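Structure tokens please, single chain.
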Amino acid sequence: MMKKTLLAAALLSTVVPAWAQELEEVVVIAQKRESNLQETPIAITVMSESFIQTNRIEDFRDISAYTPNMVFSSSQGFSLIALRGVGLNISNLAGEAAVAMYVDGVYNGQTFLYGVPDFDLKRIEVLRGPQGTLYGRNSTGGAVNIITRKPSFDPELDIAATVEEYERYRLDAGGSLPLTDTIALRGSVVADKQEEGYRDNPVLGTDQDKGDVYSTRLSALWQPVDTVEVQWAADYLNEDRSSYVLESLASAPNAAFISPSNVGGFLVLPNPALGGLSLADLFGLEFPVVGTSAEYDPDDKTWYSNESSNQEVESYGSSLTISWAGEGLGFKSITGYRDASLDRRSDNDGTDLTLLHLSAYQEAQQFTQEFNLTGESFDDRLEWIVGAFYFDEDARADFFFDLDDFQTTYEALFGLPAGAPLPPGSFLAFGPRLKTGEGSPYPFLDFSMKQSSESVAAFTQLDYAISEHWSVSGGLRYTVDKKQVNRSLTGNIAGGILCMNDRESETWEEGTGMLGVEYALSDTAMLFAKASSGYKAGGFNPGECSGSFDPETLLAYEVGAKTRLLGNSLQLNVAAFSYDYEDIQVNRYINNSASIANAAKADVYGIEAEFVYAPTAGLQLDGGFGFLDSEYGEAYFSDPVLNDDPVNIEGNRLIRAPEWTAVLGVQYSWDTRAGLFVLRADTSYKSEYAFDVFEASLPNQQSLMQDAYTQSNLRLTWIKDHFSVQAFVENIEDEVYGESITAVGTTGSVVGSFSRPRVFGGRLTYSM
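Here you go.
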């Protein structure tokens, strides 16, 4: 069957209701069954197929821009998502996400698996607030549902070609092919190549932040009868990029002089042996003094490093979903398997010295199984679900740190001739490379970790309509998590073998639940109030030889309203919430390793609002805002750069928890004999937020703050028959913000990686 372009049909689905001044119904699966968004008592941001296509939603950066109280960071290949200030802040397999991610109902565990399938999507749902009943472990902050397009029994073909600045070329293709009346296939492929990087490295004469991405997905649908549906899917992703550029932002002149956990302060100290020059002067390094802002000049795209940073992600997986729908009953089985690896080499000191270079390899294989039984009883007044969930994962991480130039810097520091013995007691009296048995003239540090995780859970939720207006809901989930770990930490610094094949295991058990009440004011307005809880499993740090960190828990209280007003032309949803957040897992960078420790607690309060308004024919306004007030309770941590006595972080805001977030979009469509034109402009704003628990409460921590920023986009789309053409400019302000900023004790410095600059581009789409 011939059809208009996917983009045209998608845009018309939002434009036509505007002409009618009436918004369409939005269906979600937030409660593990289909329901109307306006009748679902959860704060949800929904991105439809049309929104994804129009706004080029390619990753969680884009999702974050359109979601109140959401911040996304990318750190060394890991996706770090925070919702309402609750998230993950560590880039190794020790930490698990606080925002659970599901693709077609399959849970993804490790956050380097969080690449968004960014083509051939039906819908994205962002659920804010703890989802401990239906989504379970690691959903203290919320959950993200990504729903791909299913095979169709009508032939379909969609092809899109995109060209943008920095020599980036992208091809997307997807289509459905019916084989019989009961079997259909769907395939999609993405080839994305960027030949010019966003930043230049004059040391090596190369550019950085570029690379290739290739992904493909194949699915098959079998419907032997009307009540049974079997869907199989498989996907593959390969990403090879010279990315995650770490730039040195600051060094600490007041850092401790020499210690095993901090040897970096001497880089900017005057050295009598060098005639009063510092080592930074000797090697031509320029550091801003710690305590100044970590602002980034987008016009200065230079980055100084003596080694390129590269990473390769490879991931493949498969899933099988079996659904049966009977009279008042439904059953679903979701089986998933995923295997992924992350291999990277990075210059973690952010300079043209080999002070801290990292080779890291991480991999994970996971198997998941979920069973759901749903039903309706008592004349459909009671809707219920019972289910069981199983998760099994084997993961491995190997880290090797090169610290070669510490030998040179110490020789210069003490005024020694090259190769001379170091002073007695110096912790850099390097021994042999004990892990391999080979001698090493340079300092190094290795650590490795193998971890197996197993989780079993059972859950239920009931929703009962007491009367025409009043409904109550409640749910319970019980989870058992078990982890086993094998850790080794070796090197020729301060002790050689610190531990070898250290084995530990822990088991955690937790109950989570939800209790709520809803009141229907009318057919187009409802109020809700609820209490819900979330739980995130504990774990083990790879850079330590013993011990574990505890689970974190969250109890939330929330009230909200969902309304359709002004003749169904205005949709306005609001929510207010309060969190009691206990045993928070926070990131600390100590002794070369990013590790997790438990803070005491935090109090979080906030409000959110989202709206869609179609006031006249062809005109649509949409957007929202979030306000967040968060404070840590009493907890003591040492600054990794200054290595001072522990300080109390009480009163500081949570990490990546801006006080204000906002987004506003305006879209106007007009039809002509030449075709349909759609003009869209949108802008998003995030106020200042912190990358560290100290929140500028120590002298050097201002460098770990991200200033407020605004980014705006402009798009013009022309649609005619099977074709559409879009011209766009993204990040009009050329505002570049920090995606990850870290204090590194080893070098006594602050390093960071940053978002992409302004880009212009165009896209041609064909469908039939």
